[in-house]
Structures are given as C-alpha cells and as structure tokens.
Design a protein that fits this description.
single chain; about 775 residues; 4-stranded parallel β-sheet; 4-stranded antiparallel β-sheet; about 10% strand; elongated
Amino acid sequence: MSIHVFGIRHHGPGCARSLHAALEQLQPDIVLVEGPPDAQEVLPLLTHEQMQPPVALIIYAPEEPKRAVYYPFTHFSPEWQALRYGLEHQIPARFMDLPQAIQLAKTPIQPEATAPLETDAPDAQQATTSARKKLKEAQMVAPDAQDAGDTNDVRHTDPLALLAEAAGYSDHELWWEEQIEQRRDMTNLFEGILEAMTALRADTTPKDEEEAQREAYMRQTIRAAQKEGFERIAVVCGAWHAPVLVSPGPAKADTALLNGLKKLKVSATWIPWTNSRLSYRSGYGAGVTSPGWYEHLWTTPDRLSIRWVTRAAHLLREQKLDVSSASVIEAVRLAEALSALRDRPMPGLAELHEAIRTVLCNGDASPMALIHEKLEVGEKLGEVPSDAPAVPLQRDLEAKQRRLRLKPSTEIVTLDLDLRKETDRARSQLLHQLRLLNIPWGELQHVSGKSGTFHEIWRLQWQVEFAVAIIEANIWGNAVETAATAFACHKAENTEELPALSELLDQVILSVLPEAIDRLLSIIQKRAAVSADVQHLMGALPPLARVARYGDVRQTRAEQILPVIDGLFERIIIGLPGACSSLDDDAAQKMVSSIDRVQECVGLLNRDEQREEWQETLRQLMEKEGIHGLLRGRCCRLLLEQRVLDEEELQRLTRLALSTAVPAPQAAAWVEGVLRGSGMLVLHQDGLWRALDRWMSDLTAETFEALLPILRRAFSSFQAPERRAMGEKVKHLSASSAHVIAQHGSAHGQEALHQGRAMSVLPVLAQIMGVNLHGN
C-alpha cells in the first residue's frame, strides 16, 4: 500500500502535463483531489460530451444563496486532469478537502451592498452578491502562496519567495513559470516540489485553525482510502499541503480537531466560466494573470514563440493593421535574443510581449491592450451539460434563451429590437425582467437616429456571476416572469418614496408584468394621498407620463395610468405655489429642475385641459411676490416657449424684473431663468435685450463683479454660434441707442444736441488743451 502525493499549482499547465504523465505511469487505483466533497455527486458530469472548460463548481447554501464559493477548472488545471483520469479509467475519483458545508457555516453573512465575505481558508474564496451590486470576487491566498497577513513569518507570507530568491529571481511568479510550467524535462518534478515544500514547512505549524482543520480532513480522507484497501493512492493537492499528507500518521489528533464542527446545508452544480475569471483568486486560490498564455502553453508545447507571434499577427490584421510575415519572423528572433540576454532557456510572455510591441506594433502600446485582452487573457466561455443540476428559474431562463435565440456570450453584443415584432418584443420583456431581478444581462442604450418609439438598442454581455444572482432570484418564483412580478411587488411594498415607486412602475411596464402593474398603481395612489412633499409628487410624474405615452407600443393598458397621473397632477397644481415660496438659491435650482420635468410631462401627454391648468400655474408663479427670481424667470421662459406671452408682455415683465426696486441678485437670477434653454427663441426679442442692456449699464462696478458668475452661467449653455449672434445683437442695440441719443435726445428726456452751439465751444477747448483744432 503506497501513497503518492503530487504537489501542484492550481491552473498550472506544466503541472497538469507532468501530472497526467505521472498518473499514466503510476496507474493508481484511486485518485484523491483537493476540492469540496460537497460536489462529489456532480463529478461524473465532468466527462460529459457537452462539458467544455472553462467551467466552475459552485457550492452554495440554498437557503442563503449569498453564501457561495467557486472552484474553477480548465483544460490545463491539474485537478481537471486528475479527475478526468480517474473517471475515464473507471477508478474512484474523490474530493478530499474540508467540506464547504463546514467552511461556509463558519462565515457570517455580510449586509447587502458590502464587500464580499472572506474566509481564512487559503483555497476558498467566499463570494457574496447583493440586490444592487454585481457579485464581486475576493482575492484569497493560493495554496502555494499563503496569506500575507502573518508578516512575522516569511514562510507564511510568501513561501515561494524564499525559493525564488535563492535561485536569483526577484519575482516568484516568474520563477515558478520558468522552472515549473515551461519546464521541458519533467523527470522527478513532483519529488523536487515535495522536497522544496518540506524544507519550507520544517518546524512550521499550520498558520491558523482553518488550515489545520483542512489538512486534518485531507489526512482523514487518505486514511479512509487505506481502510478500503486501495493499494496505489494518488493524492493531488496544492504544493503547500504536500509535506503534511505524505504520511497521515495517527488519526486521534485529527479526529479531535474535526469533532463538533457545525454544518450548513449546501448544493453544488457546474456553471460556465471564462478565461478572464481565471485571473481571479477563487475556490482554487491561485489566480493566473494570463490564462490565454497558459492555455497556449498547454495546447502548443512545441514552437511556442512562432505560434504565439503568428496568433498576434492574425489578430492585428483583423483590426486592419499592417503586419507582414517578415515582421513575424523578426519578432520571434528578437524574443529569442532577449531570452538569451536574460539567460533564460526560452522566450517567456515578457519577451514575446516586448518583441511584439517593438516589431509588430512599431513601439505603439495601444494595440497591446487588444493583444492582452484577446490573447493573453482570452474571451473563452465554457459550456456545461444541459442535465447539470440547476434551480427551476435557471431552466426557465435557458428555455427562453433558446426560444428567443439569445445565446449568452461574454463578448459585447449590440441588439437592435423592433418592438412591433413579436419576437423582439418578447426579447425586450425578458431583458427588462432580468434587470428587475438584478441580473443586468443587457443594458439599454440611448441613441439618436432611430425614428419612432418602437426601437430599442441593447448592449448584451453575459457575466458568470449571474449564476448566483439567478439562484438568489429563484426564491421569488420558478419562472422569470413570476419571479420578477413577486420581487417587484415586494420591493414596492417596502418603498416609501414616490419617485422611486414611479421608476419601479416604469420598469414593470417595460417588463410587461400586469399583476405587478395593478399592485404598484394601488401603492402609488396610497402613497400620493398622504404625501405632503410636492417635489416628491413632481418626481413621480415623469415615469408615469412615459408609461401613459408609450405603453401602447408594448401592448400594455396605458389607461390604467391616467387616473393616477390626474391625481398627482391636481395635487401638484394645488401645492406648487406654496412650495415655491421663500426658497434659497439651492432649493430654487432643485425646484426649477422639478418644474422642467413636469413641463416635459405635460408636453408628452399633450392633453389640452392639463396644459391650460399648468400654464395658469406658471403665470401665477411668474407674477407672485416672494418667489425666487430664478423660478419667475424660468416660468416666463416656459410660457414664452409655448407662445403664451407676446413680445409686448415680455417687455413689460422684463422691465418689472429688472427695475431698480428689485435686488440685483434676484434680477440676475431672473435673467438666468429666462435665458436657460435654446438661444434662438430669445435672440429676436429686442425688448428683452434693450431692458437687459439698460439694466447692466446701470449696475455699479462692484455689483457687476458680484453678479458676473451668475450672468456667465446664464450664457454658458448657449452654443458658440448663438453667443456670437447675441453679441452682434447687443452691439447693434448699442449703436442704435447712440444714434437715437445723437439725433433725438436721450432716453431720460434730454434735448437733442445743438451742433452749431457745440462747434462754437471747440476753439476755446482747443486752446485750453493745447491742441491744433485743424490738425489730425
């Protein structure tokens, strides 16, 4: 009976290739792999013909889906090769790490919208999701590079750094890649790794209780295999753990260490993964920064350099960049020369990167970002068998994706939907429903150039984190539509603010959820009936107006919304004058924004009775005393845009607003309110410009300087051509005023200038000033 321990680095192609060869030579009768025993039931799916790495095992608590951990695999993962070997040779293949049922039970759930949970387990990444934020991945320590928290012991902080330093390397990652992953002669590789790790762990106890429990459980699993009578036991684990698993020893201490540990009910399944996510530390803690390069090492063991540079050349040519075959050859030669200068056996990624940038990209760093994204990392998305365990909501979503021909992809896909078509309308509904469930597969784009209200442009990109989000959303229903309905109703019942409720109603309408619409309308009516905040009422109106205006495009019952809109509108009309009294500058700015939104709604609904009521309210605000100048000016501008005010009325209002009785700051605020918007409308209002010119001319220098920021802000929104036209208008007005004064007297009733009498004074003035009257 023999135990053969293979210390590996997770996601290491060199380790994977060496391990496969070692297993073929050993011919074990059982394979034990570091990993979660909770997933033992889904291991047979690993050899399914539909299983295409990269994939990940996800272990989660069904009652608390926020408790979840990933174990990613790809073709070049040593664990993947070990498990496939066991399954293909029909020998037992088992996970042997401390179950996640125990590890997850130890870690408390963080509140919503906080950072992901972290455990002390060196190989486990505890990930959480929240209803508002995309699930993030916390970087956990690798089994071959331990937690950096224990700075007192370098063997715990970075054990490989000692070996790398002894070999003359400043970067332990580079040392491991060159000495292990790119190694050509794999003879006695695992013996060397075991010897090195044994030296590092000499007289070193586990860094914490969690690590001790994990290693104790691994030894217990090995002992169980021995008791079952297996003769050749292959143990595949992170290199750091290898020394303590070679000889399990007595079980008493390990049994005592594992007694009384609490467990949590967990479930396991396979989910698709991506190369980019392999760059994160996760359930297998060793994140790799260049998974695309590692895959190249795995699939192309020979002629690495020429094939890598050729792939880069193809990629650049796809982007219409000129790359010749001669340039490819020169880049390979440069990479080989660099590796020779650095005393390395063959070019690595660093040398190839520098050579490609220098030769193929002519020193330009911009194309290298594309090479990093497409080649060094890669965009590969794995696939899992259709019969892999999944929650009902996941199955319903997959069925809808097939029916609507919406295949998930990690690449960004632009989708142009015509809502007049049944299929496109169903696609839109699905994407909106998923967004409502905090699964933002698609992001709605606001673009110009599309006529009508029946177009939607979506930007789609599938994220692997959606797997946990789907599990979380399953508590609301087994189908996407029912789950979205239940979640929307729950959210509405726990929301007090009217603007938030109306925004939610907008989402529900877009998602076409009739039951949720009825419930939300009822809640909005109740909240509006007791709300005394006019601005909240005004904030709730725009989403409802959009629904009423565009609802028929989605075949929804827009007439349900109109009674709610009417009720809100009447309360706004009644309460707005009082809400606008005695506002400071900041409050006035906010109120102007609210008034603009209501104005937009009135125009959107296009109902004569409402428009007349609104115009009358604006007129009251425009002429009421005690109203901030910005509000009065804005109301004047809105009425001017609707052609309610004629030029004579505008001149009267301008004279009143800019009279000497009005404080200068309030007059300047009025000007800002009137000028806000398009410049062409006010450009031809000569009376407005004359009054403004006269008012500014009468300002003292000190007052003018104080008001200059307000006036500058008032004109800043205009386009350059509009400002030039206004400058010409003012220049013309100034010239006209001077001409009028010269010909007919000033505006203050002064008599016209007598040319003859003026000329008679000139000789005296010339003598006093000592100038020649008849000279230049």
